[in-house]
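Prompt: May I have another protein with tokenized structure?
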Amino acid sequence: MADKGERYLVLKEAVLKTLDNSRELSDQELSACIEEELFRRDKTMLLSLAQRRQYAEAIFASFRKFGVLQELIEDIEVTEILVNGPMQIFYEKNGALRPYGKCFSGAEELSDLIQAICAGGNRMVNEASPIVDTRLTDGSRVNIVLNPISLDGAALSIRKFPKEPMRMKTLLACGSLSEEMAGFLKKLVIAGYNLFVSGGTGSGKTTLLNALSEFIPGDERVITIEDSAELQLNGIANLVRLETRNAGFAGVSPIGIRELIRTALRMRPDRILVGECRGPEAVDLLSANNTGHAGSMGTGHANSTHDMLSRLETMVLMGADLPVSAIRGQIASGIDVFIHLGRLRDKSRRVLEIAELDGIRDGEIQLNVLFRFVQTGEREGRIEGRWRKTGELHHLEKWEAAGFSKEGP
């Protein structure tokens, strides 16, 4: 008797041959075809009722959903899915990375899923272009690397996002920041301060940007710019979402972040939100911030606020041959406040620091740290700490113009 994987392939191939490819089948019709084929082969394969149900669900998922990954996709507690070739799957749940007990039937099934995901995100991946970033319909981030770049088979990484947009009250409930800090950030957004969120991979940068968006006044026009659309902004009626395009089929030219920022400036934005700065587009973001688009936001990878300053300088140099003094001047005037996030040893995500850019002295950008997370201990594997207010906001022009108290936060 063939093993479970071989029987699955035989059944799936048999169902495929019975399908009417001249039209689109409904879910009910597809399920009926699968059940009919399983019933027809029941005597030769000796399937129990439980086995028939498992094969029916697996085959249906392979045609219409995510195949072996469907259970992980539907589990709201799973935050990340990592596929290392067809035989090895890991997932993250409650901050812990675990192996998954199931696998794909083979490289072909994994390849079919990858192509379906790319088609749904209007992306293309093949041997000529073996690396692609895309997204699922719910906004979850997807990265794909094909063989031979990925030596052990196609690698698929899915960063899941909640079905409901993240709100500040949820972050407060998770202990990601304090009530005082949330109130302060709310006022910064309303007043139109230019904010830049930094942090490592998986620290929650996009999540915080989503939460901050609920404080943007409802009468403003907002344009988001991303490599792959992930932001789920809260309560913004006048919203335009722009997404980059990779080079693909013949005659299709790539459109990057820089082109989208320049285009956005002609679309009468009140605020521009850039999902992530990785390179020379930092020049255009700073230019936009310095030309009247108050309240704009962006994110970037860095290990600390000071590291983010250095990275911004490097990114600007990728796109413009400017002296360092001019670059620092652009950064100091184009960004008002840094918000730095971190993922701690216990896998919790916290706002570690909020710092104001306080001008340039002796050629160096000065940081005025306003809030900082201080670790106080550890209990039952969870890090304990508190947020300490360490300074007062110095640049109050926007703050006062919004009608807030002169005393600042």
